[in-house]
Structure formats: structure tokens, C-alpha cells
Queue: 3 jobs
Job 1
Amino acid sequence: MRILLAEDEEILRMLIMDTLEDEDYVVDEAADGQEAMEFLKMNVYDLVILDYMMPVLTGIEVIQNIRREGHNKDAKIMMLSAKSQQHEQDKVLKAGADYFMAKPFSPLELLDKVNGILHGI
């Protein structure tokens, strides 16, 4: 299964990538929202994992583009954010995300969530 990970914090991005690749997921990485959009135009993903606050385009803007443009519209979308207040979660879900995960989280917690999304575990 193919995953796009868009996270501007390099250390966190590498940790998530290593965790997912250890489970044999194919993962493309983007360091900002614009780079994520470039990947989304070239590939089809089963899951898109987005950081809320990224340079160039925010996670919300990327979600809106995915849902509006239709390419990858069937991909599941998970938003990662340190903004964990209920109104922020509601905003993310209203924009079109399927899942929300508050930072900080453990790599195993993220992996459990990804496995649940992609395999119904």
C-alpha cells in the first residue's frame, strides 16, 4: 500500500517513515504542502498523512485541494497536529480529513492507527 507523508519537521518525518517502511508500506515524503501537492498529482495513494502547520500550503489547504480536484479523492486522509482542541479537530474533519491524531504520539501508536485504516485491524 502506498502512503504520502507530508511533515515539515525532518526528524519526525524520518521517524514516521522508518516506522511505516519497516511494515513494508511504500512511503513518499514531502517537506511542505506544495511538495505534497506535486506528489499527489503524479501518484495514487491509499493514505495521505499531513501535518497541520506546514510551509507554503497548510495541511488544511492540501486536504481542500485533494477533495476539490478529485485526484486521490478516494485516499484516506489523516491529519497530525499539536492543535488538539476539539474545535481544531472539527475544522480538520470538516475540511475533508478522515482521521485526526494529536501530537505528540508514539511511532507504534501511529502504526496501529495506519494499520487500522488500511487493513481494518
Note: The CA atoms of residues 59 and 101 lie 13 Å apart.
Job 2
Amino acid sequence: MDEFVRAVEATVFAATEPVTLDEIALHVGEGDVPAALVVLAETYASHGIQLVERGGRWHFQTAPDLAHLLRRTREEPRRLSRAAIETLAIIAYHEPVSRAEIEAIRGVQTAKGTLDVLMEAGWVRPAGRREAPGRPLLYATTAEFLRHFGLGSRRDLPGIDDLKAAGLLDPLDDGLIQLQLESAGEDD
């Protein structure tokens, strides 16, 4: 396989999405890109992955006769709603926390489904009941939450200064968070 064909192979392989002939040519320079793609398609025809063209775009895919092997193990990325992200953050920073406390901090009601999604993900667990009227259920994060987010412990959660440095807080958010932290400190 000559260097030009290898360069085309590397370009298609490294692309995050299927690429057009023009996009490949931008990376590899002058040469017969269509001919190189034909060579690669023939080379990979009997392998576990194949080079295919769909709608004028080229990409590698699993050979159709082997796709069933990957369907069982493929993990779908979890997409959390904004409510779920806010709820998870509140639980992580204030645990153990009741649903009423979560709602008080968020300023809106929390759907039961939101907590169910977080528990199904293995990131939140019931953590007992508060000794108060109605004995509300308390929620806390799990070891899976720490592992998934690369934290050694809850102490490794980013603080306000870290969030500011990352540009994740605007001045209004900063003031609200500071008030919430101060009120949480009064409860302890």
C-alpha cells in the first residue's frame, strides 16, 4: 500500500463523521482520492470493518455480518435533562437531601421520573429517612457516581472558584450559589 493510500486511510479512520472526497483531499493533498478509496474498500472487504460510501461520504463501519456482536455490548450515552443535571448537582453538594429540599433549592417541583433516572443510572440512592414529620426519604450519591465522574470523594467536587475559573458561572449565578451555600451552612 503506497503512502498516499495510507494517508487516505488514516484520514477516513480519524474522522469523527463520514467525510466527502473534498474533505479527504484537504488533508491528504494532491492525488487520486477516488482510486485510493477503491483500493481501501477492496482491502477491507473481507475484514471485520469495511470502508463504505453513503450519500457521497466515506466512513468505516462494522461488517454487517458482525454487527450483532456489538449490539449487545454497546452502551448508549446517557443524556440528562437540565432538571436531572440540577437535581444531581444538588444531591452531590448537599447530601443527604430530601425531595422537598431539592425543590426548595431549584425553586420548582422535581418530577419523580427525574430521581428515577438518576437512580437507574446508579448515581443516586435512597439514604434513609429524615427524623421529621412525614419522615421524608433522603437521597445521596453513590460510589458509581464518583467513579463515573472521576472523583475520589465528594471533597473533589469543584468549588465556586473552580467553576468561575472554568467560566461556568455568570455573576448572577455566582450570587445565587453563594446565598444557597450560606443558607446551607446555617442548617448544619
Note: The first helix runs from residue 3 to 14.
Job 3
Amino acid sequence: MTDDLAARFRAAVEAGDVGAAVALCSDDVEFRSPVVHRPYRGREALRQILGAVLTVFSDFRYVAGYDGEHGHVLEFTARVGDRDCQGIDLIRGADGRVHELTVMVRPLSAAEALRDRMAPLLGG
């Protein structure tokens, strides 16, 4: 995992450019949601999810980044309705592509608000 890939992903998300973020991912990228048990697979699923997230989160900003041998963590803050949210994007990649994106959020009330607002946007 290179810092450059994480930096490009971060820049795309901060710019609200879903297409650029998805373009950094492998065709079979795996997205692990903070509120859904099974992972989503593929660029089109990720495109839909990231698009919905941009409408649900307000005041989104990355506040820190951490790099390790096997991936990169981007810490963020946001609001979901009236709930403050803290979370991370755990990015794993190789060959210049994101292969896994796992999102975790806290507190539970923010995760529940996220689930409730995302479900109608994702058809579930």
C-alpha cells in the first residue's frame, strides 16, 4: 500500500468526486459497511454507496491519516442529521488500486442514523 494511493483517494473524497475515487479501485473492490453484515463487491456498488454517503454526511472532513505495512487508515469526522460522527476508512490496496475499503463509525447512535438514512438511498 502506498501513501500516494491513500492520498489520491482522500483527495477524491474531499473533492466530492465519486468517479475519481471509484477509478482508484480494482474492478472487484470489496466494501465493508459499518452497518451491513455482508460486503459489497465491485465498482458500481461502491459508486452507489459513495454517492449516497455524500448526501447523508454533512461537515465531512478527514482529520488524520495513518500508514502501515498492510494498509492506510483515514480518520474522519462528520455529522449525520443531528449526530456527530467519528470514523475511519481502512484502505487496503496493491498494484496502485484499492482492493478493500472498510468503514467504521461511532458512536452507535451515529451508526444507526447512518443506516436509517442510507437504506432508502440504496434500495434497502
Note: The helical segments are 3-14, 18-23, 43-56, 108-121.
